[in-house]
Amino acid sequence: MDLTLAQRLESVLERIAEAAARSGRSAGDVTLIGVSKTVDRATVDAAYALGLRHFGENRVQDCIEKFATPLPEDATLHEIGQLQTNKAKQAVRLFDVIHSVDRPSLVDALEKAAGQAGKRVGVLVQVNVAGEDQKAGCEPAEAAGLIEAIEASSSLDLLGLMTMAPLVATAEEARPVFAGLRELRDRLATETGAPLPWLSMGMTNDFEAAIEEGATHVRVGRAIFA
């Protein structure tokens, strides 16, 4: 029997709480971002009515019509896909948080767009911890420079780091990537003085392992929206 949206959401929240408990944390330490890229606005609104407050989308162009009517003020829209520099102006207008900052030109474009819009935008540095050629994200060695550039900007708020694990057979195979991002965050926080409180990592197949390794934000789509 197919589960309802409410049942799927409840199940994911229970799994988050259990994973947090296993790592000595509380469920409140982890923010669930519902990856809504495959569903229409009516389904987003239904999930909001069920209590979900964070939504993740991959493509700017898909959001222009979908969120022409903005989400309620207590909801947050996250950009979690690779972002083209020429889409920075639209991204700043649409999104509250951008997870995929991975190059200096994008920092510059977002800073300019946010300044022109008179808006502060939260950003994360995306790091390609796994070193996959097909994955977006800066090299770990490049992260400090991006952190410094964001910290020097006047309209961007640096929130933390993000990564995407490889598509592997089991969550355990992804665990070293999550541990690697946490270790990188700890080292960069010491080296740069930036606290980097957010660790955005983990998706439907592996979010529990990510939480156990320190994720503060997990990006879950299929397990909620099927």
Structural features, described:
With about 230 residues, the protein is α/β, with parallel strands linked by helices. The chain has one domain (about 5-225): Alanine racemase (TIM Barrel, Alpha-Beta Barrel), CATH 3.20.20. The chain contains nine helices and eight strands. The longest helix is centred in the last third of the chain and has 22 residues, at about 170-190. The protein is globular.
Tell me the CATH architecture.
Alpha-Beta Barrel
Give the structural class.
alpha/beta
List low-confidence stretches: none
CATH fold-type name: TIM Barrel
Based on CA atoms alone, the radius of gyration comes out at 17 Å
Brief descriptors of the model:
226 residues, alpha/beta, TIM Barrel, 8-stranded parallel β-sheet, 9 helices, 8 strands, 43% helix, globular
Give the helices and strands, then pairings.
Blueprint: H1 5-22, E1 31-35, H2 41-49, E2 54-57, H3 60-66, E3 76-79, H4 88-94, E4 97-101, H5 104-117, E5 121-126, H6 143-152, E6 156-162, H7 171-192, E7 198-200, H8 207-212, E8 217-220, H9 222-225
